[in-house]
Amino acid sequence: MSESKTFTRDPLCGFPVDQATSVHSERDGKTYYFCSDLCQQKFNAVSAGTAVTCAG
Ligand SMILES: [Zn+2]
User: What's the CA-to-centroid distance between 21 and ligand 1, angstroms?
Assistant: First the structure.
């Protein structure tokens, strides 16, 4: 059995995340995936275009 996973990158910290299992948020019609709740919360807190680094 081969299961293909779709990986993307956390827009905050650049960490590779699995779209199937990661937390995500939608903004401007795009879906963003995060390595952790912390990054998701930061993403939701800051305005688009603001550079934020992941503490985790
Ligand atoms: Zn992150």
Answer: 14
pLDDT per residue, tens digit, the chain (56 aa), is 666 788 999 998 999 999 999 999 988 899 999 999 999 998 888 755 555 566 55
Measuring CA to CA, how many Å separate 4 from each of 8, 23, 24, 31? 13, 19, 19, 19
Question: In angstroms, what is the span from residue 10 Cα to ligand 1's centroid?
Answer: 5
Predicted model pTM:
0.71
Tell me how far the alpha carbon of residue 48 lies from the centroid of ligand 1, in angstroms: 16
